[in-house]
Design a protein that fits this description.
2 domains; six-stranded mixed beta sheet; elongated; five-stranded antiparallel beta sheet; about 325 residues; alpha+beta; Immunoglobulin-like; about 30% helix
């Protein structure tokens, strides 16, 4: 009995230490953002200078420098201020301050709101989904299907997605009382473009079909909000403000889409960015989170493996 108690204590201690290790490995959210990039601008996080050509999030301990033709604006998350780096300037950016190594950095100006705070909260939450749990390596062909509980779509972003449980299965999408047959596919993700909905909340569910018969029916309906009318006007107004505050920043736009429930649109924006910038994986947890929320488990696992490999975990 005493030996069993000792083993239990050792096991609990191991779990506690493992939890601390996982927390240590988790990447802290960015502390700043570079925007309005002009000319030669470079950043150095791991003793390697890399060129910056568009908006970029900056993590604690990163150095930034401009060339003779370069300038860039740094938005500091800690105090919501912005400062402009002049040509031939080098700084070190930490969570506590921006230290000038050489050159000239303008005086801080109010940045016009906490443009990074919402995204940082989402980034911190997303860290929990980067862990790849060991499991039996098998295809998800047990016919069960999970779909996102609440999602928002619009005329500009009408796609509804869910996991493909196998190429031998088709699907029956039911929105309110309207039924649509969705063909089988070999893709990991099924995508259907929704049309003809009135503004507001609708109920939906996805049934798994084989040979004309339902082999899986979910226990209950999910919620689909069609964004239109005055709600869409308010959404577009806020979106325009974000675009004006940080021109060309896909991450803040995608974060706003996700925040408003347009998770599919956010996922698509993240996927496009990482396809065009395959080496820039520090912000990968945000994509992984959208996969988690959309119940795209295989894509989530693949992305988490890629993220952990790039992070050296």
């Amino acid at each position: 009995m005493k030996l069993q108690w000792i083993k239990l204590n050792v096991l609990l201690m191991a779990i506690f230490v493992l939890g601390l290790a996982n927390q240590a490995l988790a990447l802290a959210p960015p502390v700043a953002m570079l925007t309005q990039v002009k000319g030669t601008v470079e950043v150095n996080k791991d003793n390697e200078w890399k060129k910056v050509t568009s908006n970029k999030f900056i993590f604690d301990g990163t150095k930034a420098r401009t060339g003779a033709d370069g300038s860039v604006v740094i938005i500091n998350q800690a105090n919501s201020t912005s400062q402009t780096m002049a040509a031939n300037t080098e700084v070190e950016i930490t969570a506590a301050a921006i230290k000038v190594i050489s050159g000239k950095l303008s005086e801080p100006q109010k940045a016009g709101g906490d443009v990074l705070s919402s995204m940082n909260q989402r980034f911190e939450e997303a860290q929990r989904y980067t862990t790849v749990r060991r499991s039996v390596d098998k295809k998800e062909t047990d016919q069960k299907l999970a779909t996102i509980r609440e999602v928002t779509l619009s005329e500009a972003h009408p796609d509804l997605v869910w996991s493909n449980v196998g190429p031998e299965f088709s699907y029956r999408l039911i929105i309110d009382d309207k039924t649509v047959d969705v063909a089988a596919s070999k893709d990991e993700m099924i995508r259907y473009k929704v049309t003809g909905l009135t503004p507001g909340v609708h109920k939906y569910r996805v049934e798994v079909m084989k040979d004309g018969a339902a082999v899986f029916v979910p226990n209950g309906d999910r919620s689909l909000t069609w964004l239109a009318g005055s709600a869409l006007d308010e959404f577009n107004k806020k979106l325009a403000e974000i675009k004006a505050a940080t021109p060309g920043d896909d991450f803040l736009i995608a974060n706003f889409l996700d925040e408003k429930g347009l998770t599919v649109a956010a996922m698509d924006m993240y996927r496009k960015y990482f396809k065009e910038n395959p080496g820039d994986t520090e912000m990968f947890p945000l994509l992984i989170k959208t996969y988690h929320d959309l119940k795209l488990n295989e894509l989530k696992k693949e992305a988490a493996l890629q993220y952990n490999k790039s992070a050296g975990n």
